[in-house]
Request: fold
Amino acid sequence: MKSVALSGNKRTERGASDANSLRKEKKVPCNLYGGKESILFAVEEIKFNKLINTHEVHLVDLDIDGAKFKAIIKEVQFHPVTDRTLHVDFLEVANDKPVVIEIPVTVTGTSQGVLAGGKLRMVTRRLKVIGLPAALPETIELDITDIKIGQSIKVGDLKVNGLTFLDAANAVVIAVKMSRVAVLEEEVKPEASTEGATPAAKEETATAE
Reply:
């Protein structure tokens, strides 16, 4: 997993009033927990845009007034109307301590089922895992090339070195369903098989029925 650097400053005050004042200054109130003590700090809002709006998960090298911490983002609160970042919770991590985190799912390849007219459904977009920081991937890649219509990939089918999946083993991650187009094609096939046949052939078909 890649690491990104982020710097901030400790907050001297706490509470809603202080948080609102920081937001007016285009800063985001933050909290770092999981270590010896929780630390309240603030980061310039513009620094979060690239970090939060990415599909991938990153380790964050935090610099808070010169003190260094390695962390991951655990929760982000957004404004319900403007989507501005209102608050961010960071979890401090250590190289020898397993971390529980949600990793986004990405797909590679083109499904045989989709080529045959099926429809790809991504049922689960993020998976909860536990593992050491060094084993955490930015995304969990699934090759869907061999997935046919009616087939799926479940959590229990996944194997990633160093990770334990915490979602239910029977939870579907990706499935290829029969699309309306594929259904119509299947319905048309029997009729099409006798449409161009000779009268003798049609008679034989009728007799067989």
Observations:
- The domain at 101-183 is CATH 2.170.120.20 (RNA Polymerase Alpha Subunit; Chain A, domain 2).
